[in-house]
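Supplementary Methods, section 5.1.

A reviewer requested that the exact input to the structure prediction be made available. We therefore reproduce it here, unchanged from the version used in the analyses.
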Amino acid sequence: MQHRAPSSLDKEILLDLSRRTAWPWLRDAVLDWTVIGSALCIVHLFPNPLTWLLALLVIGNRQHALAILGHDGTHFTLSHNRRLNDCLTNLMAFWPIGLTVSGYRTLHFKHHKHTGTDADPELGHKRSRSPQWDLPAKPWRILKYAALDIAGGSFPDYLIILRYSKPDKPSEYLPLLCFHAVAIALLAISGLWWAGLLWYGGLVTTFMMSFRLRLWLEHQGTPDTHRLHLNFWQAPLLAPHSSWLHWEHHAWPTIPYNRLAELRKHETEKPIWTLGELLQWFKQADHLPSGQVAPVIGTHDHPGTAGVSGDSLVVVV
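The structure derived from this sequence is encoded token-by-token as follows.
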């Protein structure tokens, strides 16, 4: 399913919003790494089970934020120079979490091309993890699986992501492996081996928890995309770097994340749901097994399909 974008938006506005620039991305990447470093410093200064747990939660949350930045780089939003775009994305976002930009790009563009259909890799992932994504779903059940993630319950999900995000060339594994080998060696030599435990432990626990919670906000139960508003504390915790503006991203995927809020000001016809309204809808939804293609529902019944209109199809590039 391709997402229909309204044809009423001025082309000059869209061209301006689509300008590629690395600065906001680099700033946010540095801030994410600063938060991660601060969490590690707190553990170093005050080592105890509580600080370890808090650090694990913070690190996983910011690993997820880095993944969101990597996702933006996947859409070539940093630079017209593809090599520079991909180098920055790999080095500061994807390599540290075990991915490559080319591998993720192949997987993610399939998602854009086939959103909400049997060919959508996200639905395939959800089918493989049934019944975790069944509808209807009350908040306690969503949180139950999130809690299991902290205990390592989503380790298979992480392996699934790695398996389906294979880089274009096997040779691309070499710099990825070298990156981690050098990082591990430096941590071991400096006596900071415990930081490696927190990092890799976060990838298979709290990172996957953050990943899971965001997926509930985007396409769950709809053949399209939920159009959502998150408040000042929900956004950084659940969908950092404007990833909660996911309807806008699917409609105009070449616009950088830092301009999606500005884009929303120009598109006011589509209804916007709060997190509370979406959770209420999940509770009342018709039965839908994990990963099954959702039916198209009336515009007054569903946040993701409400008011979808227009004649111009977005081409994902």
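Confidence is low (pLDDT under 50) at residues 304-317. These observations are discussed further in the main text.
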